[in-house]
Amino acid sequence: LAKTTQPISMDSYEGQEVNITCSHNNIATNDYITWYQQFPSQGPRFIIQGYKTKVTNEVASLFIPADRKSSTLSLPRVSLSDTAVYYCLVGESGYSTLTFGKGTMLLVSP
Amino acid sequence: EPEVTQTPSHQVTQMGQEVILRCVPISNHLYFYWYRQILGQKVEFLVSFYNNEISEKSEIFDDQFSVERPDGSNFTLKIRSTKLEDSAMYFCASTEGGGYYEQYFGPGTRLTVT
């Protein structure tokens, strides 16, 4: 499994765009990049998944450069309810186990 | 939107007792998982289950743990003789297919062993 590195914490204010970057230097050819969100005392929730370039859904965007050694989760115009831990996971298609790191604790203030 | 449900939300038990944690995965999902999260720590994989058998398990999932799908809807995790260190949030998850598909997590069961 590719090791991932992401900031332990980030602070933001309501209405700002937040970008959380994850490093995965050892990403393999078959690996996908997936982000999950976890609120306190709740189970993780899938946000977005990508393989290369850019993926966008109603919640976030995921930017993956050509070398795929990093990725950036972009949350547009965050609100207080976006305060959560965000996990970057890298794994091969066909790999069923999710391996969570410590994630990035995002704190959104008024 | 379909969701994974878990019962109970909180279970308190004494050391050495058996507990069964219950989960109802999303109805058309085929792969089921248990994870746990000790307070303040990472989410850790315990076991995956497909076609009525364990497909993968972690080192945490020792002989004290077992899983079962007793009927077409429930998926259970049994801990035979609980230890203090089993205190954690236990999350059930399910997914349509194996592999790196979106896993849907339940709200969790907080297990407290005294």
Give an overview of the whole structure.
- The complex is a heterodimer of chains A (110) and B (114).
- Chain A has 110 residues and is mainly β.
- Helices cover 0% and strands 49% of the residues of chain A.
- In chain A, the strands form two sheets. A five-stranded mixed beta sheet of chain A has the order 1-9-8-3-4, with no helix packed on it.
- Chain A is globular, with a radius of gyration of 13 Å.
- The mean pLDDT of chain A is 93.
- Chain B has 114 residues and is mostly beta strands.
- Chain B is built from no helices and eleven strands.
- In chain B, the strands form two sheets. In chain B, strands 2, 4, 5, 6, 9, 10 and 11 form a seven-stranded mixed beta sheet that branches. In chain B, strands 1-3-8-7 form a four-stranded antiparallel beta sheet, with no helix packed on it.
- In chain B, a hairpin with a 6-residue loop joins strand 7 and strand 8 (75-79).
- Chain B starts with a strand and ends with a strand.
- Chain A binds chain B through residues 32, 34, 38, 41-46, 49, 87, 91-103, and chain B through 4, 31, 33, 35, 42-45, 48, 55-56, 58, 89, 91, 93, 95, 98-100, 102-108, 110.
